[in-house]
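Good morning,

Attaching, inline, the backbone tokens for the sequence recovery test we're adding to the shared suite. The designed sequence is right after.
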């Protein structure tokens, strides 16, 4: 692990990569079938979030707002605007659940969303997600925790073949699906919370729906308390597992900081072998492990000559940096959106909480950037290579189906990074030759 500076000494972020808590909450609610996220705040906050996710996933995104204005924030404690919003929603559609989450305006006012939620005669989960605290990752985790607290029913029985996966926010829908399929191949029934793998995975529906289509159902969420094992992926999700275990003390918990690279993938397979009693994994799993090993050898020479900057959410950083490290890649700088205990474990020479202004100042220390679409302009300006990962990516289609996890995804990720590095080296050599 490298030199760690947890907090920026700047009074504000310039050219930020950070996203807000309410956006993380919205995405979590979209992982529940027929759920309507209701953002308690200004119309602009909701409109931005809707456009943001619609462009990233290239899918229609259902979300509603309580349309709070400055005047309403002063005169109303949230009761009227929230209750009326629920009435308006249920006049037009019949969601299985309404996901009420806050923004900075009502939180600054001190609206009692819990008190209001108790007055609403409709299935509703509430969560406080002010955008002046935390970020994208914590908004998702807080919402998952609230869903478990308010919906999961206590249980004293255990289903020995049932596993619950709690994935962190940066896992794309296909990555959640791959984790589920891997567990299912060992004979388990698997549920993910939240579950984007069947809601925002880019499937062609029969028609454009006014509600989220796919994801875990409310009925399934209520019955999660009898699972034999809960798997958390990402340090941000550990508290969610603790809350789920309160529903049934007999439930066991296994934590993974990430599931990227050979070592972490081996850890999951070893766990599933022990839990299932199966002696050997399926042949396709064994085959993909060998392919990842070969990918590490094939990409090693290119990655070993390349200095990387990785920017994103802490849990995402941990996985990307580990994959590169195992194949000989040199992560010179890792820039996190927010502080997290995860940063202590990241495989990078320098780790900091910052923004793209920090990335620009450190330009001499890296060759290739791994980060979201906002890094594109920086890469062009500084003549760096770019591997696009994270939210948002508005320049490319197919984000929901990008897999960097486990043996299969890990192999493809290393190939992509190595190819970008070689392309950057070719352009650099050509540019140097022209200048000379």
């Amino acid at each position: 692990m490298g030199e760690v500076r947890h907090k920026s000494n700047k009074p504000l972020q310039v050219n930020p990569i950070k996203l807000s808590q309410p956006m993380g909450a919205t995405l979590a609610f979209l992982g529940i079938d027929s759920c309507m996220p209701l953002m308690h705040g200004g119309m602009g906050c909701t409109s931005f979030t809707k456009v943001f996710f619609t462009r990233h996933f290239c899918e229609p995104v259902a979300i509603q707002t309580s349309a709070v204005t400055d005047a309403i924030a002063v005169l109303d404690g949230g009761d009227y605007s929230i209750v009326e919003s629920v009435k308006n929603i249920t006049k037009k559609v019949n969601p299985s659940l309404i996901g009420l989450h806050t923004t900075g305006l009502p939180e600054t006012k001190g609206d009692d969303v819990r008190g209001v939620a108790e007055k609403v005669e409709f299935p509703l989960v509430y969560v406080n997600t002010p955008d002046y605290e935390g970020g994208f990752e914590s908004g998702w985790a807080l919402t998952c925790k609230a869903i478990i607290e308010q919906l999961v029913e206590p249980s004293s029985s255990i289903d020995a073949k049932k596993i619950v996966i709690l994935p962190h926010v940066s896992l794309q829908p296909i990555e959640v699906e791959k984790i589920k399929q891997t567990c299912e191949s060992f004979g388990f029934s698997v549920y993910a919370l939240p579950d984007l793998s069947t809601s925002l995975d880019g499937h062609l529906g029969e028609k454009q729906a006014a509600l989220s289509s796919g994801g875990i159902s409310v009925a399934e969420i209520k019955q999660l308390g009898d699972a034999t094992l809960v798997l958390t992926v990402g340090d941000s999700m550990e508290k969610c597992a603790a809350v789920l275990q309160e529903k049934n003390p007999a439930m066991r918990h296994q934590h993974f900081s990430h599931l990227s690279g050979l070592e972490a993938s081996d850890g999951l397979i070893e766990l599933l072998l022990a839990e299932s009693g199966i002696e050997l994994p399926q042949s396709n799993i064994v085959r993909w492990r060998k392919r990842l090993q070969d990918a590490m050898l094939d990409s090693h020479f290119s990655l070993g000559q390349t200095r990387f900057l990785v920017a994103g959410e802490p849990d995402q950083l941990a996985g990307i940096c580990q994959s590169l490290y195992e194949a000989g890649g040199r992560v010179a700088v890792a820039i996190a959106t927010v502080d997290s205990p995860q940063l202590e474990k990241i495989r990078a020479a320098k780790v900091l909480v910052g923004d793209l202004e920090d990335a620009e100042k450190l330009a001499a220390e890296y060759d290739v950037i791994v980060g979201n679409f906002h890094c594109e302009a920086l890469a062009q300006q500084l003549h760096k290579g770019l591997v696009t990962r994270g939210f948002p990516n508005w320049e490319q289609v197919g984000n929901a189906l990008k897999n960097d996890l486990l043996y299969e995804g890990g192999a493809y990720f290393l190939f992509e990074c190595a190819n970008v590095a070689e392309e950057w080296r070719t352009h650099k050599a050509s540019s140097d030759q022209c200048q000379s």
